Here is the input.
Amino acid sequence: MTEKREVSIRVPVLARVEGEGALEIDIEDGRIADLKLRIYEPPRFFEKFLEGRSSHEVPDMVARICGICPVAYQMSAVHALESIFGIAPGPWVRAMRRVMYCGEWIESHCLHIHLLAVPDFLGYGSVIEMARDYPEEVRRGLALQAIGNDLIRMHGARSVHPVGVRVGGFHRAPAPENVAAMRERLHAALPEARSLLLWTAGLPLGGSEQQFTCVAMRHASEYPMNEGRLVSDQGLDIAADEYDKVFAERQVPHSTALHSTLAGKPYLVGPLARINLNHDQLPEPVTEALQAASIRFPSHNPYHGMIARAAEVYYALWEALRLLDEYAVPDAPFTEGMPCGGIGFGCTEAPRGTLWHRYETNDDGTIKAARIVPPTSQNQARIEEDLRLSLESGGLERSDAELRRQGERVIRNYDPCISCSTHFLDLKLRRT
Amino acid sequence: MRRVHIIGIGSPFGDDRIGWEAVDAIDKSGILGRFPPGMVKTFCCNQPAVGLLPLLSGAGAAILIDALRGKEAPGTLRKVDVDTLQPQSAPLSSHGLSVSDSLALGRAVGMLPETVLVYGIEIGESDAAPGASARIRAAIPALLREIAADLQTLFQKQFRQDAPCPHSTDSMSSSQL
Here is the structure.
């Protein structure tokens, strides 16, 4: 006898345009026979929208893919196009791109830590409930997040999407007085970010070690953001243009997102994978704080991803401060180039992990074809694997409500980019 | 006297853009010129989780405009009682933090302005067209009248509280849409 129940978790009041996420689990004889996580993923549409567009339109268009990490999409795009057009933007642009990326890491990680992760670990239904008992911690998180917002905004923003980024650099350079004011705020926030790291490390995280492959970029002399090779803890070491040789994307019937695999297996991208592969590149204040918190990376407990995020918030403040200490207004905030035909690749570290772009341009530089592989589609198979392991180890005889709660918690730990428009998860649970 | 922030919430996709288009219409309407310079500011927000609370910072009152999917006909303007907005119980992603969640969070940590007014414009089923459709935009004239009246009330209230000044009050009450 087959029993099928559907549970709608949420009905939004003020709605964005909605997509839909769904989790389907088939339990047979006390084991998970099938598990499917369906995520609506917007980049698929954008790849087609980009075709025929001028290269200078691309940074603004890709920024619209994600309301939380627009900078990441811009960064991978401009690197890819610059590689086609033979543009080398130089050290000032390189430094300011890192600063902007620091802002996005701070903003995105603070949201994940405070809105999703900590309420789960402390047993609250939401950050709103948690804020009644932890108002100072939530205010600290929101204040750090606001610094992230303003770091992005400093490089030329309108109120909706950041528009300061262009192929070759930035449209304008921040005024020195704005940079000086930002440096003061960054400096003042350092103790707050250190406290955040120690706080997250002291929370009752639970979870257990799982076996999975970590993939992230790696740079010879710095914690990776915009440049480096793609590496794994299983010996992978390739350039961005070799991505297709080792990573496979496959369409699965249950999701609009493509599933990525490495050597036929799921893998992890994102803060935990990044810090596992690059912890030796963290500066002394961050490693000191991790030691003070008795945290050691690498770790294969997925829940340690939250500590990795807090460590990257602390790191991003230090890194932005270091880069802005040497700030000077350049002769020009960008380098001009001549659009031409070719194929180029851009691979950068978005807050949620490696974001890979491939563009093919026509002779006039317009976009002939675009491919975008976002972190969430790379993590999707890993999330499904984590769901299977976590739900089975906790016992499948538990009630539907308990299974749903744990499933949601596992999914939230990855903070999937389930489209800025997707607000609820349908759970379909079938027991036979 | 404290500023009023008018915030249109939306996305680039179809009718969900109506919050941004409403703010654009307010900017072009001339309404704001009837109030003290710099005291009413307009903003667009595309991701409440990231942007809404920072935009409320420093404001004495806020007016939010968002697309709404309820039971009324598309294009219907509704003034939503902020106290009736229910926060979402457990979003799966930080992308899912809604307007009501952000307001509830702001209230919980004492970051909300004293007055928050929320307008919703019914959008029904929307597609990914480049802008809001004409039937949704049809709500804008009524919205402009409501907002002009709200601003007048807010500033009269503030003047009464801050520094009664019959001259100024007279000049503002003569401003009718």
Q: What stands out?
A: Chain B is about 35% helix and 20% strand.
